[in-house]
Structure prediction request, 132 residues.
Amino acid sequence: MQITNQKRYVIPVFILFFFLMATGLSLAVNNGPEEIILQTSTGTKPARFPHKKHQAMFKCEECHHTMTADGKKGPYVPGQEKKCESCHNKDFKNPELTSLKAVGHARCKECHKKMEAQGKPAPTKCLGCHIK
Ligand code: HEC
Ligand code: HEC
Ligand code: HEC
Ligand code: HEC
Prediction:
């Protein structure tokens, strides 16, 4: 069978196309660090956070979200994960959510309590999260 000049390029062009798609997609996903030590500026009670282990159990939007123009909680947007304190700092409008400690306890500890009630081994004691 004779392959015309035109057809000869079809397969390599397809391979190149899929290669670019695959590398483009893998570059676009940033899962962040696998292990995080969470710490406020006072640095008194660092908390360990196995990020990757939680990613395997829960969706990103369980913890990450955005803010709408009018200051409400916005939907999770991949690639827009930010430090919690970039919003939850002393200027945040809801007085119960003005620090990493406040949102750490509200998000982390509350879920762990729920998990414990379901018999799952999520730490609820201070030293289960805090390393000193
Ligand atoms: C159980 C909660 C939780 C889940 C689920 C979770 N994350 Fe995170 N992630 C965090 C916390 C907490 C931080 C640290 C934020 C900080 O330092 O203030 C973080 C940090 C990050 C960062 C670094 C942000 C920065 O600017 O330092 C990225 C990127 C990220 N996460 C992506 C993801 C993606 C993608 C998923 C889903 C596949 C995911 N995370 C799931 C809690 C979570
Ligand atoms: C872009 C700004 C922004 C970032 C970054 C952000 N938040 Fe929020 N968060 C908000 C807003 C806005 C609300 C809604 C506050 C309200 O309803 O009073 C909120 C609400 C919350 C609440 C209250 C309960 C709920 O789900 O509504 C918790 C807990 C919380 N955030 C935890 C976190 C954690 C943990 C991180 C970091 C992984 C984080 N937030 C990052 C803006 C942000
Ligand atoms: C939506 C529920 C949920 C949220 C939110 C959550 N966790 Fe967990 N966490 C779990 C569960 C479930 C486990 C038990 C996993 C296991 O060992 O099987 C766990 C386990 C842990 C462990 C022990 C795991 C180990 O390998 O030693 C630490 C430490 C921890 N979480 C810290 C945190 C911190 C810090 C945050 C907030 C930034 C957080 N978690 C947010 C559900 C949650
Ligand atoms: C599920 C995990 C978890 C548990 C359990 C937990 N904490 Fe925390 N705590 C955090 C996270 C996350 C932060 C914010 C990051 C940091 O500074 O450690 C925090 C912050 C703090 C801070 C602020 C530290 C600073 O430098 O501003 C104090 C104080 C604190 N926790 C005390 C406690 C005490 C006391 C207990 C037990 C009654 C406890 N925490 C249990 C996760 C936890």
User: Anything to note?
Assistant: The chain has a mean pLDDT of 88. The pocket of heme C (ligand 2) is lined by residues 63-67, 71-73, 82, 84, 86-88, 94, 97, 103, 106-107 (CB under 6 Å). Residues 64 and 81 are 6 Å apart (CA to CA).
